[in-house]
């Protein structure tokens, strides 16, 4: 609302006195362009269209409604004929030189034009391709980073399984350890009991031997020499009897 | 006849105003200004590529002290080549056919190189006056000859450019005149003459480019000796 008042008063002041214009300038009511330079407007991709290399297409479009397709050509021919016949343009040796240099230029443009244009385009394209490559590499590495991150997240999900397996492992180890120790205890106890048994056996054996020895000693001691002689004589008579029996048998 | 043939080399003026100023400054509009854009039009891209390649090639043999002359050499080359090529168009005036202009370029630039050499490394600069491996009795004569050769350099630079271009333009005029005159009596001969003119035009295009390049190349060589 206030800006409207400013514009109206500025327009009113336009013609007033020596400083009226300055006041108008201050409110930009006569300016047509914007105050900002960004974004930069894009350049046209191709140059203006031309016919026969020098005449802009706009001329033909301009003359088309009134004179049709052949209009500009008639204009050109008429102009040329006028210049020559009225000797506004005099044919002199320079014209021949003009002819030769023009043909050289036309030949040059026709022959080398496309390749030079392609070269210029290639220079620009290489520039764009280099930048694009940087961008593509960055994007590829970032996409790869996303993939890796997803994989890591998936791996994290399997964490529970991992811990279960680890827990199982540990339990098994503990169990193994426990059984080993029980086994060891068993062995130790068995060893001690075996020792006791062996000790008892030993005692019994020793007692038995001792007793046998005592009995033998006593028996041998109780044998008198008379008994010995009698037993020996008996043995001899027995033997003789046996020998006799055997001899007769 | 002789007067009219050399009329093309008269410095042109219109109502007393020297038109040579226009001839010297208007070729500037042929080259589009550098925009601040990253990707330019074909003309600008080619222009940038050409100037870069040319400067790189020219400054290869120079050491770092000579790199200060890069803008001068590049702009001089562009200027001379443009003047020469535009001068081949019909009804144009070639400023480089004027000895005054060419000497005006050659003498100060040559003198600059000599002064730089004398000021910064006088022994080395004076050493150029005697090539290596000369037999002793020849030394005095050779020094005199080399000094003369040194002082004739600016003259040679200027006159080379002037003579080449003037001769080329004169030849074009003569042969065109021959074709023109022969056109009514002997058209076949006129056609042959036109063919010769065509070949000559091709030669002149080449000469125009080569002479500009030679001028700048020789200056860079003189600089290389002295810097």
Automatic annotation (TrEMBL), chain B:
It is a multi-pass membrane protein. It is found in: Mitochondrion inner membrane. The chain crosses the membrane at residues 12-31, 69-89, 101-118, 138-159, 171-199, 205-223. Keywords: ATP synthesis, CF(0), Hydrogen ion transport, Ion transport, Membrane, Mitochondrion, Mitochondrion inner membrane, Transmembrane, Transmembrane helix, Transport. One of its GO terms (cellular component) is mitochondrial inner membrane. Pfam families: ATP-synt_A (PF00119). Belongs to the ATPase A chain family. This is ATP synthase subunit a. It comes from Electrona antarctica. The gene is ATP6.
